[in-house]
């Protein structure tokens, strides 16, 4: 077993995603049974009491890998020497809202926290923004993360990626293990594009395997893209356990690497690939190795996919313009 713990910061640690995430991090589900972890938990001041309760429960689990817990309302303390950061702390939407409606309420959180990240965390930190609207919050964080390599901050579309696999598996009567090369392009919003053209089922294009373009356009894509709203409608609260699970998937694969012949969806800073304007934080097919990500290159974008990728990129550009107008970047 390594002796130095991996320092994992979680913001919004007393919230509902935090409550699913922290226990899995402490049990070793992210980094495996040989890696001790220190949890550095950030909350707003009024929630420190609730956070204390979460810490008491973590204590009561007697997790062998959990070496240390920090509870704080100071972002620089929470991010101190952090190897991994989960930016979860932000308001969730309610029924009837779009995620972009949260920009004004949540955007203000990410400038100061981006600055604190750059100041306090390890320079090669792996940071994931979960709080909505995740892509543009990541853009805001990067805007004030002076001196930090922009590749260190990513946004979560892995929940959409997992949803897209599950919906496809159900339609085709296969398991998610039969599905590779799923991609969510663009924004974690209703404009996202789950791409079955490049996705493979048993080595064959999933688009062809489904063989019904109208179902893909009119049922599959909207079902995946609006799943968050469907969960809110059914549960009366936004997704939490599945979001925590996706956050673990995202960071685990980023740190440990993607398998040969497959890729994952990650919101990353665009380098202009596939016509997505440079600088936007957009979801792409990515491979990872040694804690670094690369956008998969060389995919042919057909007439079905092109307008959908463009529409989501346009939405991201408009969110960027809004946060500029709000003075957040
Ligand atoms: P929640 O309201 O249960 O918890 C959020 C927590 O964040 C609260 O405890 C709150 O006190 C804390 N918080 C607020 N401002 C903070 C700040 N400045 N610093 C630190 N903590 C702060 O919400 P939740 O259900 O855990 O969801 C959190 C966010 O994640 C929401 O924005 C939600 O929409 C988003 N989300 C994203 C995805 C995704 O796929 N990207 C999936 C699910 C949820
Ligand atoms: C989700 O996709 O479940 C989350 O982003 C929560 C939401 O507001 O939809």
UniProtKB/TrEMBL annotation:
Substrate binds at residues 93, 99, 132, 163. NAD(+) binds at residues 12-18, 106, 113, 130-132. Residues 6-146 form the Lactate/malate dehydrogenase N-terminal domain. One of its GO terms (biological process) is tricarboxylic acid cycle. Its EC number is 1.1.1.37. GO terms for molecular function: L-malate dehydrogenase (NAD+) activity. Transmembrane segments: none annotated. Belongs to the LDH/MDH superfamily. MDH type 2 family. This is Malate dehydrogenase. It comes from Iamia majanohamensis. The lineage of its organism: Bacteria, Bacillati, Actinomycetota, Acidimicrobiia, Acidimicrobiales.
């Amino acid at each position: 077993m390594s002796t130095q713990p991996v320092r994992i910061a979680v913001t919004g640690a007393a919230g509902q995603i935090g409550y699913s995430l922290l226990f899995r991090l402490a049990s070793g589900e992210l980094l495996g049974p040989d890696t001790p972890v220190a949890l550095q938990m950030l909350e707003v001041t009024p929630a420190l009491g609730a956070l204390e309760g979460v810490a008491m429960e973590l204590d009561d689990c007697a997790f062998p890998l959990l070496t240390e817990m920090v509870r704080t309302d100071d972002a620089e303390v929470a991010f101190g020497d952090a190897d991994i950061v989960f930016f979860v702390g932000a308001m969730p939407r309610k029924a009837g809202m779009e995620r972009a409606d949260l920009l004004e309420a949540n955007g203000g959180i990410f400038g100061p926290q981006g600055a604190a990240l750059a100041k306090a965390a390890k320079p090669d930190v792996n940071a994931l923004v979960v709080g909505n609207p995740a892509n543009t919050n990541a853009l805001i964080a990067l805007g004030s993360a002076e001196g930090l390599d922009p590749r260190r901050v990513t946004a979560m579309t892995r929940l959409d990626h997992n949803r897209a696999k599950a919906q496809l598996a159900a339609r085709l009567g296969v398991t998610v293990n039969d599905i590779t090369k799923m991609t969510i392009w663009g924004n974690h919003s209703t404009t996202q594009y789950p791409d079955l053209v490049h996705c493979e089922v048993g080595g064959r294009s999933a688009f062809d395997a489904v063989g019904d373009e109208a179902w893909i356009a009119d049922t599959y894509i909207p079902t995946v893209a609006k799943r968050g709203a469907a969960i809110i409608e059914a549960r009366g609260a936004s997704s939490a356990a599945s979001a925590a699970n996706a956050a673990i998937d995202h960071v685990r694969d980023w740190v440990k690497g993607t398998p040969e012949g497959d890729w994952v969806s990650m919101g990353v800073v665009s380098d202009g690939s596939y016509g997505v304007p440079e600088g936007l934080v957009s979801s792409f097919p990515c491979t990872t190795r040694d804690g670094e990500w690369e956008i998969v290159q060389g995919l042919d974008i057909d007439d079905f996919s092109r307008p959908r990728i463009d529409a989501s990129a346009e939405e991201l550009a408009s969110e960027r313009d809004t946060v500029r107008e709000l003075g957040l970047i």
